[in-house]
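Late entry, evening session. Most of the bench is empty. Finally got around to the prediction I had been postponing all week. Sequence below, unchanged from the version circulated by S.P.
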Amino acid sequence: MTTPQSQPGRSVSAEATVDVDPRTAFTVFTDEMDLWWVRGPINFYDSARAVGRKCEPGVGGRLLELYSEDGSDALELGRITTWQPGERLAWDSSVDDVAIEVRFEPDGARTRVSVTATIPAGGADKGGTSWVRVVPGWLGAWCARRDGAARVPVESGRLALAVYYAKPATAARWLAEAFGLGSPDEFVGDDDQHQWIEFKVGTCSLMLFRLDDDRRADAAVTHVPWVHVDDLDAHLEHARSRGATIVSDIHQHGYRAYEAADLEGNRWAFVQARPGM
């Protein structure tokens, strides 16, 4: 009989240089988290209810996903273990076993922001390492435009588009380069990986997914509009009563959605809108 072996500890990291000094970068990261956090379909644990994100100051402060404006209803994402303004921020995740460290180091008049996520041996990662993937691009983009931007969160539009490719990562790099939709360097994944690839076009999301065998057999299912609605359950029942073919019932993966086919077999995804949309 073989004794199961625990997974070894590991860490992942990323960095970006932002156009502000270290103390400002720290303040932006913490006080303005709800401004630089991008409100995409899967960027909250419960995207149907989320109204924002908040970082409470100081050691022992909480990182929160807010479900009410006053914070009385919220999901605790982490507890701050290190608070050194302009230098270092760290927290332990409350949703898994990941520990996050963010360093702010001067680079001339700018700041090099590095993010490291550590998973202990045998520990679980249920989204804690996502900070490594999102902070460099999102924080940098906000720092670049914040001087002339309104200090209100930018909510996502109610219409999004999912496009299916045989090689989604390759397609993402091509779209970024050829059509100017983003930086090709953002899309470094393998085409065989199951990953979420999303462009922001204004306030709308353009999402790329892998074309599986079922979709290859159905030429009508290469583009799927995503429409956000106020009451998903009522919308489903109305669509069903009017003869729509329900391809998949309501399910939740951050976002809450169902998929239906129209009278000519085209696929549509309907997603529960957040309260602020």
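Two things to note before I forget:
The longest strand covers residues 74-84.
Residues 27 and 125 are 27 Å apart (CA to CA).
Will write this up properly tomorrow.
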